[in-house]
């Protein structure tokens, strides 16, 4: 029997994505961001979350998604999962739900060269791209 993993499904543009909830600390409404001069294109800025300066990353820029979308929520990563990168969040269009996914639900055969993609989750009516937050997607100092 394959082991189940809980993932958070969210929207970027017209597509659905998900992350293992083990990476996630909290989900907050997108608020006012302070831009950082000369930052890489995927860094939207920083915001104060309960006294903690949090770098906000745009995963659409990282993944090459052109759709603008609502950008209404921020997925804040657990600082224990970002190493010495500090507090990091992704600005996303929408957060849908937490679901359990088993190995049988995942197709990873076409993604051998994609480090940031864990696999494609087959849902009843659609596909959901399971992304892995790696150094490029959470590191504010990275160059694009």
UniProtKB/TrEMBL annotation:
Which Gene Ontology cellular component terms are annotated?
Answer: cytosol
UniProt-listed SMART domains: CheW
User: Protein name, please?
Assistant: CheW protein
The protein's matches in Pfam families, at most eight in alphabetical order, are given as:
CheW
Name the domain of life this protein comes from: Archaea
- Provide the CheW-like domain boundaries: 4-142
* Biological processes annotated in GO: chemotaxis; signal transduction
Tell me the Gene3D superfamilies matching this sequence: CheA-289, Domain 4, SH3 Domains
